[in-house]
Amino acid sequence: MRMTIESDPSYPAHWEADVVLRDGGTARIRPITTEDAGRLVSFYEQVSDESKYYRFFAPYPRLSDRDVHRFTHHDYVDRVGLAATVGEEFIGTVRYDRIGPDGRPASAPADEAEVAFLVQDAHQGRGVASALLEHIGAVARERGIRRFAAEVLPANTKMIKVFTDVGYEQKRSFEDGSVHLTLDLEPTAESLAVQRAREQRAEARSVQRLLAPGSVAVVGVSRSGAGVGAAALRNLRDSGFHGHLYAVNEAVTRDLLDGVRAYRSVEAIGAPVDLAVIAVPADRVPDAVAACGEHGVQGLVVLSAGYGDSGPAGLARQRELLRQVRSYGMRLIGPNAYGVINTAPEVELNASLTPAPMPVRGRTGLFTQSGAIGIALLSALLRRGEGLSSFVSAGNRADVSGNDILQYWYEDEATDVALMYLETLGNPRKFTRLARRTAAVKPVVVAKGGRHTPAGHVVPDTRLSEDTVSALLRQAGVIRVDTVTELVDVGLLLASQPLPAGPRIAILGNSESLGVLTYDACLTRGLRPLPPLDLTTAASPADFRTALAAALASDDCDAVVVTAIPWVSEHALADDLADALREAVAETPGKPVAVVHVELAELVQALSATRGPAAETPDRPAADSPWTPAAHAAGATAAPVRIPSYPAAERAVKAVAEAVRYGQWRRALADAGQVPEYEDIDEAGAATQLAGLLADVDGEAVLTLGDWDARELLARYGIRVLPTLPAPSADAAVRAAEVLGYPVALKTTASHLRHRADLGGVRLDLTNEAELRRSYEELTDALGKPAELQPVVQAMVPRGVDTVIRSVIDPAAGAVLSFGLAGVASELLGDTAHRLVPATDRDAAALVRSIRAAPLLFGWRGSDPVDTPALEEVLLRLSRLVDDHPEVIGVSLEPVVVAVEGISVLSATVRIAHPPARGDLGPRTLPSY
């Protein structure tokens, strides 16, 4: 059943949401409508007598017609009911009724509601009630309800736990034989943490069910052995999959296909199927999905193409596919997927088109959206001796995305490094949040291909540039690289080496020229290389070992790059050099080592071989400890020493530089900073002002505030904007100057001249009436009539550095705070830094210092340093304003003059709009289709 706004204009379609439950399955949450009477009765009949007693405090075997009418007729304001559904069936319900102080039904402005749940017994324990509480709470807040009241029998411990575990501020009392609970619905840090922890566990579990199934069916296996389905079946069979494997072909006439038990349909299998790999033409996929759903399959990998990758009609087909899959509570990888691999020894799953041999067991996780890139990355890692923990190639990623895989890798003890090739970020705000949390415990390396959205990928529009997105990813600890080659290069170093403690790099080798190239590459990457140590071309493997051991033992370096060229002598073999280097590392572990080689292909294989001496490799530590790849899940164990090698100095140094930067970010996590509290902020006053300004604004319209309203709003957060007075004539300009006091500035505010001092639209330091009148005449003669120029007069402020502070709400990334110097040069060079809101004090300090022109703020060429603490305070206050009030969708402070002492905001533009109903801070939900 799909209610629409057309069939019922009052129906709140934006409350519909798909959610992942605790066990990894999915359900749909939607408002209950008048058409749900039959579903409600059927649902109630399947609930046990005990659950009915807990709901109604008395035996209640069946719902009366009056009950059914009351529970299905809502005004979606004072009375709301939501249902969790799988397919067409209800599995849980929740409703609230607004009440007044006397406990009787009421309307606004009453801000309390009575809430009650009922969950089908077969679905209790799946987190249905917790998900319903999140969503009904968001609905209530949207309708002006601030508190929930609930009466629960003391024996109903499960429901009491749902309320007490949610993280809201609450009161509990025992009255008349029942537990009375009152929940404050204002989100708290604890409630948000609870919500996100539940989201992580549920989404990780849903991926785990896809990667570690107990049984797999391949649907669409040809009898001839040709085609995609037959290839997927062979790969599953040859990988040594530990579960049950089935082949499905509707025309099969024998018991076995390729040695695997075959059936004409999924229903005929007669045993549970956890994962189905679908490889039939697109027009036959719906029937296959329906068969899988009816059989209770938990997840699908759809290899079939012909969806979003094939134009608008295919995109519509893809949306319908996802709708159908979710109606059965399943998760979907694909369509147009390449498949999944899990090398865990207890699973050994190769449900992909990658032929045998399956990648070896390793500690690197790999996610790609592109099958072709996935093939290239798998081949590159295999050639360089790196194994995998898991691999997912999601194709059009209609459902399972990189966000889901990050949720899984975060707690996966088998994965130490996360490598991701992404064509789109989907939900950048959520991705950044998840990546930041994951990067705190293991590296996340991302190569993002394509600056435009490929066919088949439905993502929110973004107004942010690629540079801005990259900066925000780096702020979250993501290692952003530009190519798939760099993805492999950096991943190899992080998977096999500890993080460097700093940027000091020792360089040693048997080629002076290669050492100099490495030295130059280090300087280019911002590292601090030591003078290269030339061992000469006569150096033996023993000489390399001695030199490397000395460098590793030295307190003067944090990492070592070894350079090697072929010997003239035939006696020095690659294996000997590899053994020598590994022995040195095994004797003195703790610093990363990378090797640059020229025409020594055998050395690559020798260094990556899993033989030779072993080094002690500890477990993954806490986020504020130095990171080292974990070789096993428990205890320090002896792991073969592997050293990454590179055919060019620039590639090796790039990998080391990224490891250095990531190590610095990890260490900075120990003091992530705080979002400061300012006692003079008037949050309530700002909320009231915004509500009044938006009272007459319709729908999604955007209102740009007038100067007076903008100054008043900013002043509530301690940001004082210097007043300006209009000057429609020379006489008016003189009167304005007399009010403000000389000296003054005269400037135009016409949109084509605003903030363009280079076009002559500004006159400064006017000390008397004569200068002001002369400047006014020059301005209007040169640029146009006063009505066109819209001149204003403003008091002069102390000289300083002109800067620009902005904040914008991006549809995909959320609130972003930006900073740069004012002027054309900064705009042309893109010299602007960005941070996500809310910004901490450390974020603000880093923001000011991260632009290339930052030296101008700190006494460049003998000038006086300006008041950067005051600048940082304005940044933090603006961040608080935007974070506290989602109605504020854009603020531009330009220019902000930072003097030696103090700061002056000369102009401000503020745009506001009604906030979106849901966001990343709202209840957890899967992306909509």
Structural write-up:
The chain is of the alpha/beta class and 929 residues long. 34% of the residues lie in helices and 23% in strands. It is flat and about 105 Å long.
Unreliable segments of 5+ consecutive residues: 616-637
Overall morphology: flat
Output the number of helix runs.
27
How much helix, percentage-wise, in residues?
Answer: 25-40%
Strand order of the largest sheet: 1-2-3-4-5-6-8-7
Oligomer: single chain
The separation of the N and C termini measures: 16 Å
CA radius of gyration is: 32 Å
Strand content range: 15-25%
Total number of beta strands: 41
Class of secondary structure makeup = alpha/beta
Mean pLDDT: 89
Largest sheet: 8 strands, mixed
Question: What secondary-structure arrangement, pairings included, does this model have?
Answer:
Layout: E1 17-20, E2 26-31, H1 37-45, H2 49-56, H3 65-72, E3 79-86, E4 89-99, E5 112-119, H4 128-142, E6 147-152, H5 157-164, E7 170-175, E8 178-184, H6 189-211, E9 215-219, H7 228-238, E10 244-248, E11 256-257, E12 260-263, E13 275-278, H8 285-295, E14 299-302, H9 312-327, E15 331-333, E16 339-342, E17 349-352, E18 361-368, H10 371-383, E19 388-393, H11 402-411, E20 417-422, H12 428-439, E21 444-448, H13 466-475, E22 479-481, H14 484-496, E23 504-509, H15 512-524, E24 528-529, E25 533-534, H16 541-553, E26 559-564, H17 574-587, E27 593-597, H18 601-608, E28 614-617, E29 637-640, E30 645-646, H19 649-668, H20 683-694, E31 703-704, H21 707-715, E32 724-726, H22 730-740, E33 744-748, E34 762-766, H23 769-783, H24 786-789, E35 791-795, E36 800-810, E37 814-821, H25 824-829, E38 832-836, H26 841-849, H27 868-884, E39 888-899, E40 903-905, E41 908-912
Parallel strand pairs: 5-6, 9-10, 9-13, 10-12, 13-14, 14-15, 18-19, 18-20, 20-21, 21-22, 23-24, 23-25, 23-26, 26-27, 27-30
Antiparallel strand pairs: 1-2, 2-3, 3-4, 4-5, 6-8, 7-8, 11-12, 16-17, 16-19, 28-29, 31-41, 32-35, 33-34, 33-35, 36-37, 36-39, 37-38, 39-40, 39-41
Helix pairs in contact: 6-11, 8-9, 10-14, 11-12, 12-13, 14-19, 15-19, 16-17, 17-18, 22-23, 26-27
